[in-house]
Amino acid sequence: MGSQGKEERAWQRVLLMALPGALLATIVLGLVLILAQLDAWQPAFKSGSLQALMTPDPFAAAGTLGLVGGALSVAIGIVLIVVVFGIQTTASRYSPRIIELFISDPVNVLALGLFLGAIALIFMVRAKIKPDYVPMFGVVASVILGWVGLAILLPYVAYMFEVMRAETLIQMVLWKTRRRMRRKPDRPSLRKSVAQISDIGLGSLEHADVPVCLAAVEALRRLLIEVYLPLKPGLPAGWFDVSRDEMPGTSEEVLALVRRTRTWLAHTVLSFYLDLIGQTPAFRREIVHMIASATGELGVAAMKASDTELEEQVVRFFNTYLRTALHQRTATFAYPLMHEYRRLAELALETHPSLTLEISEHLLAYGRSFETNQVSHVVGAAAEEVAEIASRAVHDGRSDQALAIARLLARSLTEMVAAERPAGAIGAVMKPVVKLTLHCLSDEHRELASVLLAALGQAPRDLVERALRRLEGTRIDVYYEVGERVVAFDWVEEELRLLIPALRTRLEIAGNGAAAYPGSQPVISPSKAKL
Fold first, then answer.
1. What secondary structure does DSSP assign to 247-281, as a single string?
2. Which of 3, 104, 123, 449 is 20 to 30 A off residue 358, Cα-Cα?
């Protein structure tokens, strides 16, 4: 529905561009007919017929063709200047690969062909004019072609300026690729289309043109999910046997992997996303958010298509995105990446529980890596995302999966306490553990709550009490600063806040050596916690 709406808007833009030229030609033609009728009624013109007035003699026909030919020559000069200017400007801003888009554009071919054909026809008709003979059909045809050429000049110039916009170029590439792939899948053409869109994305990033960069990321997502994945099962095995020339800069191991898993195109697109993250300034987090969203949707599409290799590739690239953000020390990149990573894990709960558990483990591991590299805010966000996954599993009635994720979260907190990490980092991980424990304080989730209570029991008592006081005192759900975090980590719903005294009681019972729940174990050692 979205692509259909964009195509309709494109046709509307074409009609709006053609309207001024058509309106101008209609006004001038009507004015010519009115003036000709007035001239035919003059007494000096003996015939009084409009047809007789409009029929030229040999001298008038030759002069008319000369004017038409001269006007068309000026018009085609303007056209060539506009075309050359557009090609040069766009190619220098983005990539020389863009030149092919102008050359293969049928509108450019038709416009130039019309002007050249009209001029050639005028030459031939002018040569046939004799002192006593006028080739009327040729003269009329030449005048009509000249009229059409002048009428389309203004719309064509407007069209060229529209085509020079990067967003239009991206849509042109996507439209041509979709049509070509549906007719006959062609790997070199597909690679060229991906390269053209990638060049536009990188060029726009260099010129700080963020909307164009976002459009390039979205176009590649649509190319993969809407165009390529539906056709992938029917492609022959040789279609996936790529060479080093087709994937320059990759190792032999990567080539062997993408051949075996049939994922060379997804690897190419996701590698471009990775390059964008590496070149994006820290304050342009909207680009990283779009990349994370596109990668997550690709993972969802892979799950729907039962493409296990593509699922694994999406997970590996999400991890690599986080590693890149870690190297750049940009927490603003980590937040949207973890959010979309968590969304993929939640969508995989029903059909791919092992993938959900794997993503949860990766989120906690990279949160710890950020914390050890002194980007401390991210570890709390990672724990929050994992706690959200566990909460979703509890809500959906998937107790086994929720228990496995809770054990990961509890183990992460216990290991940080054992490693004597800074109090701020431990507290950041402790809050989502406390909130998840509040969600599970019921007989229905006894085992889950016991795992979390055991981890909280091993944490320093003052840190636990501090976290509980913050959760009791925070009554506004929106974070008090503007940033990626909108929901405050220190906030819980009112019905959960009322359970905090009961949680204190359970922790005191566990601290005195009794089990928080009858029949439960008070402590779970990280080394003995199994998934």
1. STT--HHHHHHHHHHT-HHHHHHHHHHHHHHHHS-
2. 449
